[in-house]
Structures are given as C-alpha cells and as structure tokens.
Amino acid sequence: MTLDFRRATGLVCLVALAVLVLWDVFAAGSGQDGATISEVVRGFGYAHPIVVFAAGVVVGHWFWGVQLPHET
After folding, report:
1. Which pLDDT score is estimated for 3?
2. Helix 49-63 vs helix 37-47: crossing angle, to nearest 10
3. Contact at 8 Å (CB) between 35 and 28?
4. CA-CA distance, 41 to 34, in Å (whole number)?
5. Which of 30, 48, 51, 67 is the most exposed place for a label (fewest CB within 10 A)?
6. pLDDT-based confidence at 72, cuts 50/70/90?
7. Is the four-CA dihedral 8, 10, 16, 19 of positive or negative sign?
8. What does the pLDDT look like over 26-52, one tens digit per residue?
9. Residues 47, 56: contact at Cβ < 8 Å?
10. Which residues touch 65 (CB under 8 Å, ≥6 apart)?
11. HEC profile of the chain
12. What is the structure's pLDDT at 10?
C-alpha cells in the first residue's frame, strides 16, 4: 500500500486549519489584547514588511496563470 501524498497533504492542511481556528477562538476568548493569530501576524508584518512582501510574491506565483472557468 502506498501513501497518497496529495490526499495526505489535503488532510494535514485541513487539520492545521481546524487547529488554528480553534486556537484563535480560544485566544480571542481569553480577554488578552493582541492574542489572536491575526493580531500577532499583523504586528509581525509591521515589524518585518519584507516578509509580507515575500509572502505576497509566493502566493501570487501559486495563482499566476490559473485558467478560470468560462461562464456559459
């Protein structure tokens, strides 16, 4: 039996997303300012704008040249 890495990768991404959402809900409910993921990432981005730029370049290249389905 071989491991289907495409399916496994999708499952890992789904589990990671679920964990991050649960953590963010927990952090938001903690009552501490600046505890959510978006606030931490925003603060990091302001301190290190080159990382935000690099992330934009990477994500842009993921979708560069993607053919959108034509509407009929």
Report:
1. 86
2. 110
3. yes
4. 10
5. 67
6. low
7. negative
8. 999 999 999 999 999 999 999 999 999
9. no
10. none
11. CCCCHHHHHHHHHHHHHHHHHHHHHHHHCCCCCCCCHHHHHHHHHHHCHHHHHHHHHHHHHHHCCCCCCCCC
12. 95
Q: Which two tokens stand for residue 20?
A: 């991050």
Q: Is 66 exposed, middle or buried (0-12, 13-18, 19+ CB in 10 A)?
A: exposed
Residue 10, both tokens: 């999708």
Which tokens hold the place of 37? 């993921």
Quote the tokens at residue 70.
């034509």
* Each residue's pLDDT tens digit, 9-20: 999 999 999 999
As given in the structure block, the two tokens for residue 33 are 């300012």
